[in-house]
């Protein structure tokens, strides 16, 4: 990968994108089947994955260093410095269950664009999208070993991936506790962590509820709420609080619960029995979350991502 020119890397990514587009419906049904995500949302994920690959191809064409004047110090008079971007080597990519294809593309696309090879560890709950994607990379003409998939439980595979010093960089999306463990094990190697979120919304009295309420419901219930950037808190001005709540509940009740492969399904199955039990327990005070001493929110035991990389 490192010896490929910028345009060769860009064209490789564009070929991968084209192959993904050809098999888009197959990928969407695979995502829906392994995650429980409604098929309509799965199709959106496949489309977003294609856009991510195109953005990565564009990034490959625009990689460059800099020429910097050194005249800030007397010894630098008449001198210039030149920087060159070089691949880091092997990138270890660890991805969660909720967007098994697009979040993988967020890591794989930029890594290949920069001339690196990738070892991808998908969630043990949703490995099929990565395993189906790997042949596309090969078919597109990537060098052997450019993209590798290793499946298995996080405590085994991730520990190996994170502690092997041949892996030059780790990029991880998942829970805060696992991210902290990864950071502690990697030493001076590079790490990119995307962990946790608590999304809030403030609704003022002059808000257009016809426009806003459907967006709030979508933001809160997409993928049955299993999205790190899902809407989690809504602060509504007291003048319209009751009216907003009525509209929100009415709209939420209109969402159809059904099989993920049915076209009109909006809410489907959760990723695990533990996740379903957590939702079922939310009518009990204190069951939905726990507050650690650091003051940051963390999920209860049993919630996807609480104790592992899912």
Describe, in short, the structure shown.
Helices cover 42% and strands 15% of the residues. It is of the alpha/beta class and 310 residues long.
Please give a handful of descriptors for the protein shown.
310 residues; disordered C terminus; 11 strands; alpha/beta; Aldehyde Dehydrogenase, Chain A, domain 2; two-stranded antiparallel ribbon; five-stranded parallel β-sheet; Aldehyde Dehydrogenase, Chain A, domain 1; globular
Q: Report the uncertain regions.
A: 289-310
Structural class: alpha/beta
User: Tell me, what is the CATH class of the largest domain?
Assistant: Alpha Beta
Distance between the termini: 29 Å
């Amino acid at each position: 990968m490192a010896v490929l020119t910028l345009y060769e890397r860009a064209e490789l990514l564009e070929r991968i994108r084209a192959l993904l587009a050809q098999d888009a419906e197959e990928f969407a049904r695979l995502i829906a089947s392994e995650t429980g995500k409604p098929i309509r949302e799965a199709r959106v994920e496949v489309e977003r994955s294609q856009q991510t690959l195109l953005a990565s191809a564009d990034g490959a064409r625009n990689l460059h260093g800099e020429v910097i004047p050194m005249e800030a110090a007397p010894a630098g008079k008449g001198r210039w410095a030149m920087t060159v971007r070089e691949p880091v080597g092997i990138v270890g990519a660890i991805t969660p269950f909720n967007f098994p294809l697009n979040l993988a593309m967020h890591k794989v696309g930029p890594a290949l664009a920069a001339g690196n090879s990738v070892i991808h560890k998908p969630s043990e709950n949703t490995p099929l999208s990565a395993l189906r994607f790997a042949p596309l990379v090969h078919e597109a003409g990537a060098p052997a070993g450019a993209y590798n998939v290793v499946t298995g439980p996080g405590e085994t595979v991730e520990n190996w991936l994170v502690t092997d010093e041949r892996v030059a960089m780790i990029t991880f999306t998942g829970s805060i506790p696992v991210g902290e463990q990864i950071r502690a094990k990697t030493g001076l190697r590079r790490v990119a962590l995307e962990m946790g979120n608590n999304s809030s919304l403030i609704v003022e009295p002059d808000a257009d509820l016809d426009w806003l309420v459907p967006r709030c419901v979508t933001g809160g219930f997409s993928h049955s709420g299993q999205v790190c950037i899902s809407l989690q808190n809504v602060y509504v001005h007291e003048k319209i609080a009751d009216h907003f709540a009525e509209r929100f509940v009415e709209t939420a009740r209109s969402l159809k619960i059904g099989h993920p492969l049915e076209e009109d399904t909006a809410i489907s199955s959760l990723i695990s029995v533990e996740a379903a039990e957590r939702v079922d327990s939310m009518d009990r005070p204190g069951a939905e979350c726990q507050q650690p001493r650091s003051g940051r929110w963390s999920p209860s035991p049993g919630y996807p991502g609480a104790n592992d990389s899912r």
